[in-house]
C-alpha cells in the first residue's frame, strides 16, 4: 500500500502589463514514502536556536559551537512532510574514532514540513561533529551540516 503524497500547488496571476491572462498552477513538490528524499526541502541552521539549542555562541564563555560537558544539546531538522521513514543524528567522536547514532522523532508537522528532534549529551569534553542520516524506505542520505566542538 502506497503512503499518502503531499502536493502543494500555488496559483499565480499571469499578467503582461495591464493585461491579465488568468492564473496558472505550479506544483512545488511532492513527498511520500517513495524511496526518494527531497533534499531541496531539508533545512538545519546550526546558528538558529530553533534548530540547535543552546544555539551557536549563546553560552558564555563559549562563543563557538561548544557547550559545557553534561549539557544537553537539542538538534532539529526540517524535512518535507511525510518524506522520511526515519532520521538519526550521527555523532563522530574524533578522539575515540567512534561513531554513534541517536534516533530522532517528529515533534511537529504542519502539513508542509515535518520537524524532527533529538538530544545529544556528552559527559566529558570531546571534539566531535554531527550529521543527519535521513532514511526514506530504501533510500538513505547523510548530510554533514555542522562540524563543531559540542563539548
Q: Any overview of this molecule?
A:
With about 150 residues, this protein is an all-beta fold. It has one domain: Immunoglobulin-like (Sandwich), CATH 2.60.40. About 0% of the residues lie in helices and about 55% in strands. The strands form 3 sheets. It has a 4-stranded antiparallel beta sheet with strand order 3-4-8-7, with no helix packed on it. A 4-stranded antiparallel beta sheet has the order 6-5-9-10, with no helix packed on it. A hairpin with a 3-residue loop joins β7 and β8.
Summarize the structure in short:
This protein is mainly beta. The protein is built from no helices and ten strands. The protein is globular.
- The separation of the N and C termini measures 45 Å
> Overall pLDDT, averaged?
75
CATH topology: Immunoglobulin-like
Q: Show unreliable segments.
A: 1-8
Oligomer: single chain
Helix-strand pattern, N to C? EEEEEEEEEE
Percentage of helical residues?
under 10%
**Radius of gyration (Å):** 19 Å
What count of structural domains?
Answer: 1
Proportion of residues in extended strands: over 45%
CATH superfamily: Immunoglobulins
Instruction: Give the overall form.
Output: globular
Total number of beta strands: 10
Number of helices: 0
Give the second-level CATH assignment, the architecture: Sandwich
